[in-house]
Every structure is written in C-alpha cells, then in structure tokens.
Write a structure and sequence with these properties.
The structure holds two protein chains of two kinds. By secondary structure, chain A is mainly alpha-helical. Chain A has 14 helices and no strands. Chain A has helices at 2-6, 10-43, 60-67, 69-100, 107-115, 122-133, 139-145, 162-188, 191-199, 204-215, 217-232, 236-241, 253-263, 267-300. Chain B is of the alpha/beta class. Chain B contains 20 helices and 14 strands. Chain B is globular, with a radius of gyration of 24 Å. Classes of the chains: A mainly alpha, B alpha/beta. Chains A and B meet through helix 13 of A and helix 3, helix 19 and helix 20 of B.
C-alpha cells in the first residue's frame, strides 16, 4: 500500500482501484494456496495420525517415507510416466495435427474423433482400457479367439510392464488436446512459407521439422505445461485401471498420499509425501520460472 | 366472518405448533456409506424403526467408506457433528474417542446388558477404557469359502473344508477346465485370503500376536512360515485375469461355474442370491478352519450439547441393539447380528452356520480391523499384495519385508 500512496496523479487512483479489486484474489491465493502449503509442510514434521497434531518429531516421517518401498516404486513410476507420456502425447499430437493440416476431406469429423478421448474422464478411460487390456476379457482373448493360440498381451497383469499400459491409456486420452493446440498453431503459419519452401525444393518433412516446428514453440510450451500438470496429479487413471497393482507395481505418489491420508489415518506420512511432490514440482518449474520472469527483468534493469 | 376465520386459523396454529416442535425434537441425522441396493435396504430398517418410535430419521449417505469417514470426521472436528455416524468396527475411531469427541454409551450398555450378548472380541473393539463408545450393529464373517456345487461335481471333488483340501482339489478342477480358486487380485482381497490362511494354518494365537501385539518374533515360527508357503501355493490356482479384478466380478466367475471357489466375506452372499441361485443346491458356503473372522460396522455418537439430540442418540443406540431391529437389518445386509443370543432360525443357512460358529467362544476371532491400527493394516497389505504378485519373492524375503512394515507402522 505504501508504494501505491507514493505514486502520484491519476495513475495512483487507477492503481488503488486495481489493488482493491485484486484483494479477494490475493487473499484467496495467500490463505488457500500458500496457507495450505505451509500447513501441509508443518504437519509433515508432526506425528499426526487421524487428526492433525502440532507436535514436532523432526524428519522421522521422511525417514519412513524414503525407507518405504512403495513410495520409491511410486516415484520411479511417475518419472517413467512423465517422460513417456509427455513425449508420446507431443509426438502423436503433432503427427495428428500435421495429418489434419493436409486439407483432408471431412476434417471436422477427424478432429472430433481425435479429440473425443479427451472429453472422457480418467475414470472412464481407465475402466475401458482395463477391460480392453485384461488378458481374460480383452485384446489377448480376441487374438486367441481369432486363432492365434499363442498370442500374449498381458502387460496390465505384469509387474514390470504395467506402468506402460497406463502410459498408453494416458497418451490415447491426451493426444487429441495436443493436436488441437498444435493445429491452431499450424493454422497461424504463413501460407507463403510453404510456397517458398516448395520453390526451393525443400521436402515436406524438412519443412515441418526445420521451419514449422520452431514457429510452434509457444504452442508446444503450452501443451507441455498442461501435460505436466496431469502427470503430477495422476491418480484416478491408476485407481480405475490397476488400483496401483499388481501388488504395488503401478503405484504413483498421489495415490500413496491419498491412501495414507484417508484409508490409513496417517496424516504425518501423507503430508511428508505431499511435500516431496511439491518439492519435485518446484525443482522442475524453478529453471523455467527463472528463465521467463527473473532473467529478463534483470537484463532490462 | 373473515375475522372469525382468522382467529380460528391462529388458534389452530397455536395448538399445532407445539405439537410440531414435539415431533422435531427426535430428529437424528445419520451419516453412513451404505448406498448400494442391499445396503440401502438394510439401513432403511433402522430408519423405519426410528421413525416408528416417534423420531425423524435424516439420512446422510455418502458413497465410499473413506469419503464418508473423511466427511464425518471433518464435521465432528469442525463442531457440526451428525447425530450418529458409521465406522468399521475396530481401531478406526480410537483417535476420536481419545480426543473426547464422542459420547460414551456406558449407561445404555449397562441397562441393556450389552456385555452379556456380544462376543468378547467385539466388546473389546467397541469399548475404550472400559466404556462403550460404539454400537456394533452386525458381524461380517471374512473367511468364508464360497463354492459352486455343479463345478465341484463336474471335477469329482468334495466341497473343501481346509486350505489343504483346496490345494488337493486343484489338479482335478484344472483338468476339468475350471479355475480352482477365483481371486480378485486387489490388495485388500489378497489380505483377506492371507489372513484366512494364517488363522487356519498358524492359529489364532499367532494371528493375534502378529497384528495385535505387533510381535515380529512370531513371524519366524514354523507355523507362520507354513502359512506363508500355503498362501504362495494358492497363486497357481487362480486365472490370469485375476490381478486388479473387483470382488463381485470374481464372485460372478463362481456363480457362472467358470471357477469353483472363492474366499470372500459374507457380503458375497448377496450376489449369489441376486443371481437366483439356491443355497445347498447351486452354491455352498463353509467357514474356513481356525475360527470365524469377525469384521463389521458400528455407529458412534458424537458429543452434542442439545438435550433433544442426546435423547435421539439414546433412542437410536437402544433401537440398533434391540433384537427385532438387528434381525431385520442383518437379513438385508447379509451379515449376522452382533447379539449372539438371538434366534437366527429365520435367517439363511450361511447366516445360521456363522451364528453357530460365533456361539463357540473358541471360534470368535477378531479381524485385523478390530485389533490393528489402519496404518498397520495398510502397511502389511502392501507387502502381502506385493508378495502375491511376485512369485520370485522367497518366503524369507517376505517375512523380512513384513517385519519392517510392522515396525514402520508402530
């Protein structure tokens, strides 16, 4: 408020009005987001079980967390999932967008079909893929019924491969969104670039890779941010598809936190897990935030 | 004329209003998670009894036990508690009692002699420091064997009475093209199977020491080892669609005769009945050896200031423990009454078998949820589920992991 008072003339009034208008949003952000974050971090140093207790037991929840095989498996899974899911969605989405950009007949139909999975909730996606991949009901049974007696596709019941089935289902779900974002970008690319490239005899793949792709930079960043958010909150897809199983093989951090928060009455351990999730998100975001917001201002100053 | 009618109107209100207030004072908001068909019908029996006694039942059903408990606990801590709230019998509500959020029910329990009619383990699970804090409304048996009579006949096998019988029957069933044991590979179902085997092969004492006393030394006994080995051998008896499958989908394999048997709680009975199968002719049920593993549900009564709310709580507690209401409720719920002094001859064969077992104190076994904290239940569940789906894991490795899970959760 001091700075607002200090500034003079008409802008002061405008700034004050803006500041007043922003108060509800600021309070919400501070109380709900920052407040809950601090509260969560505080509880992760307590012995809270069912109800929050404000005692201090040091880092023993974190010790338990890092000795917990399930949490380690969950962490490994989210890394595998994150890399493959984002890469897979970008690749599929880009290919689909390029395909639709070829002025195919019935573009609207294809666009709808490709975007359709995204309109489904993760729960529905998970259930459908669970049935489809179940060796006794779905793809494997179909293959065998068609006469391929040795056809085997049991990834979803296999501890080592189960996480990849979740990646496949998630890519199926998310590619359409990436397609839409990139298609919007493609439509913004100047037609004359294409003509110039043709005149110069540049092959189409080279045109897309070296000319269009760099122009799509901001679109790709938008897509990556949206996809990264669904990586961190990956929970319902796993619950619907595998319940974190077989055993604990397809567990993810969010499921670990939810299970301990509710079913297992262990708020202390759950908040420790949640804090670790927050730290890893911050670690990934920090370089990007630094590059976009902090570095430019310095250069400007 | 108008004035007269107005006077009449006011007079009517004056006489009716106090009567309406009278009716409102026994309003009870009950929070529970019984939303599926049979469950909702069962809880409607409570509502009927309470409304019949002059109260007004306000039903707050929230689907899913975890969600319902989270909502209820938040309301209790936040100072706006429901009149009554459901929990699973056992350690789930210990911390709420310890923090003084619940009304003790000792007076009603004394007057109605609850201690004389409930199994001892159930008294232990619903009392804290010698006072009742919860009304046990039912007992769910967790170690039932459900079998398809036709499927067993086809393979020429007698209905198994022990886990060794099940293992012995497996080759014949496989030869006949039938899945010997239908199992839904979700970790809680695997834990039900594991616990049933430990109680059958290693006995109640070892089971109680492991989960109740959290004694890791017990894991090294040969009896516990042999139970683990029997459990591991059961993997071969299931089908490849087992991992992650829901219990009801698994039960439907037994109903259709694709599989011969399933170890599951008595809530599976409802699915057999819904499929129009006849007990004794189409399907059968056996309690596995070692005792009757008791789970179940309770209602707790949060502290309230309002005297009328307190009256409603007392009335509800009395009704929920009354013989007629317990019978009516449990017939629909599929469980057996928590009062083991009741005559259950009007219930189905499985319930009668269960009640017979419960009337022998030797057969009353507290399930993990009675004796272990939710934290311990969950930590051991992870290890059991991991072992089940990792055939390459040795018994020693399992025991080591189980011991460290026990230590971490205390």
């Amino acid at each position: 408020m001091e700075t607002v008072k200090a500034s003079a003339g008409k802008p002061r009034f405008r700034n004050t009005a803006a500041a007043i208008a922003l108060i509800p949003a600021t309070v919400t952000v501070l109380v709900v987001y920052v407040g809950c974050m601090i509260w969560t971090i505080r509880l992760s140093f307590s012995s809270s079980k069912l109800l929050p207790v404000l005692d201090w037991i040091g880092v023993s929840q974190y010790t338990r967390l890092f000795l917990n095989e399930r949490f380690l498996i969950a962490t490994e899974n989210i890394l595998i999932f994150g890399v493959l899911f984002i890469a897979g969605c970008l690749l599929m989405g880009f290919l689909l967008a390029v395909f639709i950009d070829q002025q195919v007949r019935g573009e609207a139909v294809f666009r709808t079909i490709f975007l359709y999975p995204f309109s489904m909730s993760f729960i529905v996606t998970g259930l459908a893929w669970q049935w489809f991949l179940n060796p006794a009901l779905g793809l494997q049974k179909l293959g065998r019924d068609l006469g391929f007696a040795t056809f085997t596709f049991d990834w979803i019941t296999n501890q080592e491969f189960v996480i990849y089935t979740i990646v496949i289902a998630a890519i199926w779900h998310g590619s359409g969104l990436v397609m839409c974002i990139l298609l919007a970008g493609l439509r913004g690319v100047d037609e004359s670039l294409w003509k110039a490239a043709r005149v110069d005899g540049i092959p189409p793949w080279r045109y897309y890779l070296s000319i269009v792709l760099p122009l799509l930079g901001p679109m790709i960043i938008t897509a990556v941010v949206l996809l990264a958010i669904s990586v961190v909150r990956l929970y319902d897809l796993v619950v619907a598809m595998t319940h974190g199983g077989p055993g604990i093989a397809s567990d993810v951090p969010a499921k670990f936190v939810m299970d301990h928060l509710f079913e297992r009455n262990n708020v202390g351990l759950a908040t420790a897990g949640a804090t670790m999730m927050l730290i890893s998100v911050a670690a990934v975001l920090a370089p990007w935030l630094y590059k976009t917001y902090i570095k430019p201002t310095r250069r400007a100053a | 004329m108008k004035r007269i009618s107005r006077i009449v109107c006011i007079a009517t209100f004056a006489t009716v209003l106090p009567a309406m207030a009278q009716a409102q004072e026994m309003k009870a908001e009950v929070l529970h998670w019984w939303t599926s068909g049979g469950e909702a019908a069962a809880v409607a029996e409570f509502a009927k009894a309470f409304n019949g006694a002059g109260g007004e039942w306000v039903d707050t059903a929230i689907a899913g036990g975890e969600q319902a408990r989270a909502a209820g606990i938040n309301r209790i801590v936040g100072g706006n508690p429901p009149t009554a709230m459901q929990f699973n019998t056992g350690a789930q509500f210990s911390e709420i009692v310890a923090n003084g959020f619940l009304n003790p029910l000792e007076d009603i329990a004394e007057a109605d002699h609850w201690r004389d009619v409930l199994p001892k383990a159930l008294v232990d699970a619903t009392t804290r420091d010698g006072k009742f804090y919860a009304v046990p409304v039912n007992i769910h048996g967790q170690n039932w064997l459900w079998y398809n009579i036709e499927a067993l006949k086809k393979a020429g096998v007698e209905p198994p009475k022990s886990f060794d019988d099940i293992l012995a029957a497996a080759p014949k069933l496989k030869e006949a093209g039938i899945i010997p044991l239908a199992h839904g590979g979700q970790n809680w179902q695997t834990q039900i199977l594991f616990d049933a085997i430990v109680i059958a092969k290693a006995g109640q004492d070892i089971f109680n020491k492991v989960y109740g006393d959290v004694d890791t030394e017990t894991l090294k006994t040969p009896e516990f080892r042999s139970a683990v080995e029997t459990f591991a051998a059961m993997r071969e008896l299931t089908d490849e669609g087992s991992p992650g499958r829901d219990w009801s989908q698994t039960t439907s394999l037994v109903i259709t005769g694709k599989a011969a048997m399933q170890i599951m709680g008595d809530w599976a009975k409802g699915d057999f009945i819904a499929a129009n199968l006849t007990i004794g002719k189409d399907y059968g049920c056996n309690v596995m050896p070692g005792g009757y593993v008791m789970g179940g549900d309770v209602f707790v009564f949060p502290k309230v200031e309002d005297a009328e709310q307190k009256a409603a709580q007392t009335k509800l507690a009395e009704l929920m423990m009354s013989p007629d209401v317990q019978l009516a409720f449990n017939k629909k719920k599929g469980s057996v009454p928590s009062r083991i002094d009741l005559d259950v001859s009007s219930m189905d064969q499985c319930a009668q078998k269960g009640m017979k077992a419960l009337n022998d104190p030797e057969q009353q076994v507290a399930s993990i949820s009675y004796i272990a904290s939710p934290d311990l239940v969950g930590a051991t569940r992870d290890v059991i589920g991991q072992f089940w789906s990792t055939p390459s894991m040795t018994t020693d490795e399992f025991i080591e992991k189980f011991a460290s899970a026990m230590k971490s959760a205390t």
